[in-house]
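hiii, so i know i said id send this last week but things got crazy w the move. better late than never?? heres the sequnce for the chain we talked about at the cafe, plus the structure i predicted for it. fair warning i was half asleep when i ran it
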Amino acid sequence: MKNTICSVLLLGFTSLLAFTPHSGRAQVFNEALGTGALQSDTTGSYNVALGDYTLFANTAGTSNTASGTVALFSNTTGNENTASGTSALFYNTTGYSNTASGVRALYQNTVGFYNTASGFRSLFSNQTGTHNAAFGVNALWANSTGFSNTASGNYALYSNNGNE
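okay and structure toks below
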């Protein structure tokens, strides 16, 4: 099978580093703008990385969108995540279907999935929690493992780390 790269746009000083097809698979429809954006990608497809070091560690994750410096920085194989804001979803590695909007929203999430955080540091401490929704500054800030929580308003359920 021929190795190909289709519809790839890479802009920035190191955007092309480590961006080569392996094992006959191709990266298709990836777009990167910024130093180090999508730098480690090998087989991931349908990713958009806008900002320095966005999706930096991504190797095989697909259908991710990151905008803002170091958004989705640690993502390796997580899929269908959206991070908008500096350091949003920073530690996410394999978590999937998360949406983070705001500086450091879902910052410590590693493997959690189906979470939505909107606001400065909302769901900041979440690591493995799932099905959470936080709207407002520091909403559900301490939640790390809790699931199925909804918090609306600044500091709403700030100290919660359960299923309330």
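btw Residues 140 and 157 are 5 Å apart (CA to CA). thought thatd interest u
miss u guys!!
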